[in-house]
Write a structure and sequence with these properties.
The chain has about 325 residues and is of the alpha/beta class. It has nine helices and 15 strands. The protein has two domains: about 1-120 and about 300-330, Alpha-Beta Complex (Quinone Oxidoreductase, Chain A, domain 1); about 125-275, 3-Layer(aba) Sandwich (Rossmann fold), CATH 3.40.50.720. Strands 3, 4, 5, 6, 7, 14 and 15 form a seven-stranded mixed sheet that branches. Strands 10-9-8-11-12-13 form a six-stranded parallel sheet, with helices on both faces. The longest helix has 13 residues, at about 125-135. About 45% of the residues are buried. It binds NADPH dihydro-nicotinamide-adenine-dinucleotide phosphate. NADPH dihydro-nicotinamide-adenine-dinucleotide phosphate (NDP) binds next to helix 2 and helix 3.
Length: about 325
């Protein structure tokens, strides 16, 4: 079997030589274990953090060891109760073509009649991040004006749709005309191309003008930096900011310059960090509500697919250059 390992800790943007594809002997199956042929592998921005040797909410990847990540595959051998050959399962031993792990560490896919890879995106970890981040962490309510960055990505595109299905007004920011068109097609009331000329704060104010609003009630932050500053500049009294990610700084050590930080105080803006794993206990609600919206045609899946295990690093690096629309996936 084959697996990707981290060979060197990246300095700034990772390069090809930081990764190696190794051959591993197939492990014999112990009692209670299953063998899974991975069909779909996830690449996610948080994996960049695990490449650094720093203490965080997940331990760093060990050098020379297979990396981990979300994966969906088919059980091809089972010595675990309740899991049969042919079952489609999700688990955490990604970045490889075959996984051997205890049956207690795989989950059968929920019965929602969608293609399996959607449980890595819209109906998986990024979808849960969007749903719980917007509704629980930011406490967004019908009628709120929601601003979301990286709005054409896996989390952002779901935030747009959950907000619209919940009766909110949404402004999305994304890089380039095609991505902005997608965000509009998902129901956003206004879009900002952050890569076009001019300061972001002005573009956000223009977008607010277009929809007849003075400011934002909720900011769902996937990016940090200038996006967070523009959100601060337009935050209404008692606005709520869910800080989900700061992809703008994952590959750099540059300090952020937030000109509008002090508006946190004047406008009593509440800013809260968001971690999807805190909300996993509410997964049943997520599948029920999202499954309902899906059946009503209120949710649309978008994904970008790279072909073959060899393409893993390329797909991963594409996250930082805007190479994906919707969820970035690798099909094994
Ligand atoms: P995406 O599918 O959104 O992919 C990343 C996108 O970010 C790219 O397509 C690109 O889109 C945009 N981007 C990259 N660099 C920059 C930049 N410097 N400035 C602005 N936009 C940039 O990834 P996910 O949906 O998986 O993740 C989105 C965010 O959510 C990340 O910050 C991630 O770390 C975070 N996250 C946090 C979780 C939590 O529990 N807290 C869980 C899951 C995700 P474009 O072309 O528009 O620039």
């Amino acid at each position: 079997t084959r697996a990707w390992t981290l060979q060197a800790r990246p300095n700034g943007m990772p390069v090809a030589t930081d990764f190696a594809l190794i051959e591993m002997p197939a492990a014999a199956l112990q009692d209670g274990e299953v063998r899974v042929a991975n069909r779909w592998l996830s690449v996610d921005p948080y994996m960049r953090g695990r490449m650094n040797d720093v203490k965080s909410y997940v331990p760093p990847f060990a050098l020379g060891e297979p990396m981990q990540g979300g994966a969906i595959g088919e059980v091809i051998e089972s010595k675990a109760d309740g899991i049969a050959v042919g079952d489609m399962v999700q688990h955490f031993l990604g970045w490889r073509d075959e996984a051997v792990l205890p049956g207690t560490q795989v989950q059968k896919l929920p019965d929602l009649a969608v293609p399996p890879q959607q449980f890595l995106g819209l109906l998986g970890m990024p979808g849960m991040t969007a749903y719980f981040g917007l509704l629980r962490v930011a406490e967004a309510k019908p009628g709120d004006v929601v601003f979301v960055s990286a709005a054409a990505g896996a989390v952002g595109s779901t935030v747009v749709q959950v907000a619209k299905a919940s009766g909110m007004t949404v402004i999305g920011s994304a890089g380039g005309a095609d991505k902005c068109a997608l965000v509009t097609s998902l129901g956003a009331d206004a879009v900002i191309d952050y890569k076009s000329d001019g300061p972001l704060v002005k573009k956000l104010m223009t977008a607010l003008g277009e929809i007849g609003k003075d400011g934002i009630d909720v900011y769902f932050d996937n990016v940090g930096g200038e996006h967070l500053d523009a959100a601060l500049a337009t935050g209404n009294m008692h606005a709520r900011f869910a800080i989900c990610g700061m992809i703008d700084i994952y590959n750099s050590a540059k300090p952020t310059e937030l000109r509008y930080l002090a508006r946190l105080i004047g406008m009593r803006i509440r800013m809260t960090g968001l971690l999807v794993s805190d909300h996993i206990g509410h997964a049943a609600e997520f599948y029920r509500v999202m499954g309902g919206w899906l059946a009503e045609g209120k949710l649309h899946n978008s994904e970008t697919v790279f072909d073959g295990l060899d393409a893993m690093p390329e797909a991963f690096l594409g996250l930082f250059t805007g190479g994906n629309t919707g969820k970035m996936l690798v099909k094994v």
